Amino acid sequence: MAAVSTPSTPTAADADGIDLEVTLVPTPGSAALCFLADEAHASDDNDDDDELIEEEPSESVEVVMTMVDPLIASPFCTRPPVLRFVYHGDDIRTHPLPEGYRTGLKWKIQSTTPNLIKKMVRQAGFQITTKNGWIGTWGKHMTAVSFRNLRADQKVNHYPGSFQLGRKDRMWKNIAHMQARHGRHNFDFVPETFCLPGDSHLLKRAWDAAGAKGKWILKPNASARGIGIRVIHQWCQVPKKKSVVVQRYLAQPLLINDTKFDLRIYAYVTSFDPLRVYVCKEGLARFATQKYSNKKSKLKNRYMHLTNYSINKNSADFVSNGDKDECVGHKWGLQALWRHLAQEGIDTDLVWHRICDIVVKTLLAVESTINSGVKWNCKHQGVCHELFGFDIMLEADLKPYLIEVNISPSMASSSQLDRDIKGRLLRDVFNIAGFIPPACRTGTPDQSSEDVLAQDKGSRGYSQHLAQNERLKHAYFVQQYDDLLAENKLDDILLQLTDDDICMLMECEEE
To answer: N or C: which end of the chain has fewer CB within 10 A?
Structure first.
């Protein structure tokens, strides 16, 4: 996309206390095809945690609340304000939304909508509904027809085609394409992978080369929560006709207390054209419940080799943890993990930088296809946003590997640790998304007709067809990107800004 050219290295975002890393990435041209048929079968761990009814603290504690405005004003006077979301676990509450702003403020819930989201949107002033007329929703993926029917004032939490990341086979094929195009060494963060039955002959060759000590992990293409995953070491265990993914097993993982663990990293994408991604600094570390052993006799022990919470919570050895800052039990907060590793002398800043690099490169691997899906299936810009859950595992040498990407990461909350981490994550996601009260689109009770007419209709969710000069500029910078980069002339994109460029830069500032 020609409108923004910024470095791809993640830097800290300071505004408004949002605890996210932000990366803005210029995207090259889009592919001509979009595939939507398999979206319902992408990796989805929405039921990964058991959700409990959230209770208020039983102790009588006097808490002083800080009251803030229910609306966040844009720094640009012609653009409308957006709703402010707060997490009920923080000592912050919003003043009641004025009655004139509540008209048409509806949030559609689904059977999978977690309690955290229901409570948060109610506090922001939304009326909960299961019918049409809504402007916000959070749930499972949608069909192509549903995307095409979205209004300009609606916002859904998925992009058309994001199954290209959520399905394990599609994710690998997209990464493999980037390896072929840009060099394997630049995209070497996924374990060697084979998609069966098509890659059976390649797997057999790698299997024989690994010898008797080789270990592999077999996964269904589109499952979550550890369903159907097995560690194997005999060729007879490989299905002959079934469509599955087989990866080289990471047999030398980094261990803590002699147990395996993986990381759940949250990445929030507000745009794929250009790519705008926010990586949350807080996340989860999820531990296996039995001490790790590399012996073949132990390969069937799922509590030893799999780190999925949905599996290990059923172990007799499972210990829960309710404090995101404590390094106890079998689920830690990400920042608690970094502190623990730093005490062991590990350069956690370097590890984090490598993880952010994986997130950005993985999203770049699918940006072309998803952009095509958005342009083909969405009549309006700004109606899609998505929160991805990246599962990362560290080897003993601290090299991070991408295990999978969840397109519906669980927002259920079975503990205070979950509520604190996911609640603040959702608060930031919704505040960045920018939900405009319908009254601010059509004119608030205190606005004159002249003010309404002067309001910028190209902002936050409104579609603006590109003029001819904008289309020509886009085409030029997409087609000449490599040459301009080689000549150090990418900054020329700022010499003559179009209306679309300005709108996009304003959206970045607002986020």
So the answer is: C
